[in-house]
Specification:
heterotrimer; A mainly alpha (about 150); B alpha/beta (about 350); C mainly alpha (about 120); B: about 350 residues; alpha/beta; Peroxisomal Thiolase, Chain A, domain 1; 2 domains; C: about 120 residues; mainly alpha; 6 helices; about 0% strand
Chain lengths: ~150, ~350, ~120
Amino acid sequence: MKLTNQEYQEYLNKKSPDSTLLKDLLWAFVVGGLICVIGQAIFDIYKNAVGLSDDMARTAVSVTMVFIGAFLTGINVYGKLAKHAGGGTLVPITGFANAIVSPAMEFKKEGLVLGLASKMFVIAGPVLVYGITASVVVGVIYFIMSFFGGGGI
Amino acid sequence: MNKKCGRQTVRIDNVKIKTAAAIVGEKEGQGPLAQYFDIVLPNNEWNEKTWEKTESKMQREAIRLAVQKARLSLADMDRIFSGDLLNQCIGAGFGLRDLEIPFYGIYGACSTMIEGISLASMLIDGGFAQRAAAATSSHFCTAERQYRTPLEYGGQRTPNSQWTVTGAAAAVLETDAEPGDIAVTHLTAGKIVDMGIKDANNMGGAMAPAAYDTIKAHFSELNMKPSDYDMIITGDLGKVGSEILTELLAQDGIDISPNYKDCGCLIYDPEEQDVHAGASGCGCIGTVLCGYFLDKMRKGEIKKLLAVGTGALLSPTSSLQGESVPGIAHAVSLEVKTGGEKQ
Amino acid sequence: MMSYINAFWVGGLICAAAQVLIDKTKLTPGRILVAFVVIGVILGGLGIYDKLVDYAGAGATVPIVGFGNVLAKGAIKGVNEHGILGALMGGAEAAAGGISASIVFGFLIALIFNPKSK
């Protein structure tokens, strides 16, 4: 074989099948969209039937969606749906719940403390690390800017 | 007598594979080769509390079964070579704990079965043992949690990805190959070959150059050609890797295409079972060789077989650190012994 | 009715964008989520994302990008109320419901259920 590593990589890329992008996109769009519609329906219930403020209703929606995602993961449904939906089940907050529950369940056999609990954030942890860090950065920038012209980014 | 045929290849004079056994999981039991396996698990737990325990049990039972088929007892086994994919090879360590057979733990990733058969053959042919066994195992659930993601995590598998076989295999090797026996005739030890592929989801592509290297060495050191074999098999290159192997060898004028099969493309139904590029895992060539191909040899449908085990020598740590995937391939040639007055 | 249609196509589109990254790049799902939440924080900090929330409702809040928006808005609110210390408090405070729910439900569900072999 007279291929260099780079030539082989290019050759391999050519041989490897492509993802079925169009089908995947459709799945992601429809499932992701439907999850958001469910979120909207729950929001309307909390706002109109329960009478929560917009902000409280949104938090209540998050909590409810997290529960749904966690529960569907528990009964072995979310992973199956995600096989087709991909980004459609990854991006909604239900996917965040799936990322937390699935390792917690998987590593329960290594114990409730060092298995379940310590592996709980093995996938979702980075979202909190970078999300919260970025928010603190935003807060600090906002604080500094408030000295020059008083607030409002 | 000099048994060295070349830098990588040795000749084995008088060793046979006496018996073999293969145990597979549920999904493999729904595949096209189901009838060739000794045991198909009713479920992938097999009454054990953890997947690791299940895998160990599969390995242990495969060895018991192979020894039983040979009408031997465990105490007749002088050595066993075994290994698996689990960290520190706990599949073998725990599975073989109660068998009380002198044990060498080995690791060749998914080539482990062929590595084990190679070492056992040399040990016996060298006169260091009368009988030795080789065994291996893999389990979809133990491999997923170690190498990839939790079972219930909503990830999508890439089109290149391969499905880890839930399966264990064992072979009992013995000295004195008589006509009609499946004799081990040559071994070619592979070199580690790394073409810099970093995608751990494309293991077939990463391992194909290693298989190419070993097969090429085998033919050149023995001055043989593919048509000298009825069948040439590789372990788990899958759809992508096996195509690449065929093309790489063809470029050097070695045409294996008429009688070449990849075990990773045989064990599942590619249309029905949704395994993307095929199967992988130690259990892949293990169960397909010990279950399917050795059966074909016993029935006389295949007389000469070249079995090439392929392994990807990566770990989750090396992948996270951005390393490429080193490949390894070992070859064993098997032949149904002919001639002699007994036939 | 319009709010449902808007939630559907905006939410769907955000998910489809993630799918493009899954299929066309080597980014792992974990990295895509991190990217999306950070984008949410930036858009939230700039005050842009709330316009999308007004338009698409849950279509903007249910995707993880909305989580980033909540974090950023919380940090700004925190600064307004508590000064520089609020930058540390505000984000986590605003997202506390979702985070605590994830932990508690995650714990309970993992206690009760088990993964299934494929």
